[in-house]
Design goal:
single chain
Amino acid sequence: MNDYRIKTAAPAGVGARAGIDAGLRSYMMRVYNYMALGVAWTAIVAMFMAANPALMATVAMGGMKWVLFFGVLGLGWFAPRLIFSGNAAMAYLAYGAYATLWGLLISPMIAYYLGMNAGLVVRALLITAITFGATSLAGYVTKRDLSGFAGFFMMASIGLLVAIVVNAIFFQSTMASLITSILVVLLFSGITAWETQQIKEMYADGDLPATARSKAIFGAFMLYGSFITMFIHILNILGIMSEE
């Protein structure tokens, strides 16, 4: 009797585990698909603006670039609340607006490097994809709890953001720009791993469809921000190195 119970209990546990794993894989694929759509939409917006210099000069340059910059920061803060509002249209709109603002904000940079050497943009995108993929995979498979790094990531992000803004306004130093970009790429590589682990841990097999959708969009929102940030600074690094 004991042997029979042991032999029948194991397959049931394996089946349940397999069901959870399949659900987790589906959930993570949904996150990455949403993220890829956001990146693709940002690229479309940036390329459209780059192809229309007059419009780009009006919307994304001069004083307006700071409006877009703080708009990105503001939406980065409020969008999660909209994503988890329970309204599907509001969640998609918040994520789409975030991706649009990023596209508008980076369009002058994209236009500049496309005019200088289009290959730099392609290389930056490829390096970003490889770096992002490797660090996200590391965050997914690691057994180490990365939550203890959250405070450090927050403080380091704020510090680098202040350094970037101060350099852009007052010093405009190429060397300082290069150093901060290298630090940003290193920092957001770690953040990507941490975010991926957090997104994985948000998954629950019994979530209602609306909750699962909100979690997937929020996960994509997190990873999208890290991907775009890494891309911008990898492109800046390649651009500075090519000019020297």
